[in-house]
Amino acid sequence: MGFLTLNDIHHTYFTKTSATPALRNINIDIKEGEFVSFLGPSGCGKTTLLSIIAGLIQPARGCAMLDGKNTGKTDSGIGYMLQQDYLFPWKTIEENILIGPKINGTLNHAIKTETLALLDKMELRNVLTSYPKQLSGGMRQRVALVRTLATNPKLLLLDEPFSALDYQTKLKLENLVSSTFKTFNKTAILVTHDIGEAIAMSNRVLLFSQRPGKIHKIFDVPENLRLLSPFEARHHPAYNELFQVIWKELESLEPEE
Ligand SMILES: Nc1ncnc2c1ncn2[C@@H]1O[C@H](COP(=O)(O)OP(=O)(O)OP(=O)(O)O)[C@@H](O)[C@H]1O
Predict the structure, then answer these.
(1) Is 243 in the pocket of ligand 1 (CB under 6 A)?
(2) CA gyration radius, the chain
(3) Ligand 1 proximity of 42 Cβ (cutoff 6 Å)
(4) Would the CB of 18 count as within 6 Å of ligand 1?
(5) What is the top-level taxon of the source organism (predicted)?
(6) pLDDT number for residue 255
(7) Alpha carbons 163 and 141: distance in angstroms, whole number
(8) Burial class of residue 129 (count of CB atoms within 10 Å of its CB; 0-12, 13-18, 19+)
(9) Tell me, what DSSP letter sits at residue 3?
(10) What is the ipTM of this complex?
(11) Domains in the chain, start-ordered, CATH in brackets?
């Protein structure tokens, strides 16, 4: 069994008049410290699967087990980061990043020091007393990431966290996130539409089929790419090779016009 095990997950959304099958037969083991990306056509169920892993949606069948516990039944220590930063506009950056430990009742001197060090690592100095509206989009996403990491989650779910950023900021943030996750050996799942980002950030890329989403193929990212930063990885021949393979596979999934 993996650190995170997705066990025969199926899900269908029901309304009064319709049923939308979203996911079928999702089975996968993810190791501790692994970075996995979910890639696939729009509407194939990637966010639904993240919500099931987070315990926010009860799947119609199957379950997600993290460290031996069903994520839908326990407070499983999962951090969730989205495209929007959802910082509290009326709180300072310091208050925002420490809110998780404060709510959990775990805030102490050591956690505060570690969290502030993380803010430093994210190249955000001198913003502690600022408010979110005074920061750029890229800075706010980094603050959101520090806030997510402050609770020391066992697993991080990242739902297109870089997609609203300009290209340069996105590349910079990918580098920062990747080095932070490697340093702290964090297990993470990234939902993205960017094949390059998936390859440059991950150990494995899971390609989903059209809805109802199934795991269509799993691509292992060569070990030598993982030793590089995402920016460096994008210039490696192995990156281009894998990009072509995934691109062709993704194209074969698109519906005929
Ligand atoms: N609450 C809901 N009620 C009914 N249908 C839903 C609901 N949420 C999602 N769906 C449908 O389930 C399918 C999967 O949605 P989901 O958001 O998981 O896909 P996705 O792969 O994340 O899409 P995208 O890449 O466009 O963000 C879609 O057809 C969507 O319209």
Answers:
(1) no
(2) 18
(3) yes
(4) no
(5) Bacteria
(6) 65
(7) 11
(8) exposed
(9) S
(10) 0.97
(11) 1-24+33-77+160-257 (3.40.50.300), 87-153 (no CATH)
Instruction: Return the sign of the alpha-carbon dihedral for residues 73, 74, 75, 80.
Output: negative
The reported pLDDT for the residue numbered 210 is 92
Question: Helix H segments across the chain?
Answer: 46-53, 93-97, 99-104, 109-121, 137-149, 167-183, 195-201, 223-226, 230-233, 237-253
d(CA 84, CA 140): 9
CB of 141 closer than 6 angstroms to any ligand 1 atom: no
Are residues 207 and 250 in contact, defined by beta-carbon separation less than 8 angstroms?
yes
168 half-sphere exposure, CB direction, 13 A CA radius: 0
What length is written for the chain? 257
- Does the beta carbon of 57 lie inside 6 Å of ligand 1? no
Q: Is the pLDDT of residue 240 over 90?
A: yes
Instruction: For residue 244, report the distance from its CA to the centre of ligand 1, in Å.
Output: 27
Q: What is the mean pLDDT of residues 117-126?
A: 87
What's the whole-number mean pLDDT along residues 202-228? 94
Cα 123 to averaged position of ligand 1 atoms, centre (Å):
35
CA distance 64 to 70: 6
Token look-up 């709510």 returns 103
Q: How many CA atoms lie within 13 A of 108 on its CB side?
A: 2
Instruction: Output the average pLDDT for the chain.
Output: 91
Map residue 4 onto helix, strand or coil.
Answer: strand
Compute the distance between CA of residue 37 and CA of residue 17 in angstroms, rounded to an integer. Answer: 34
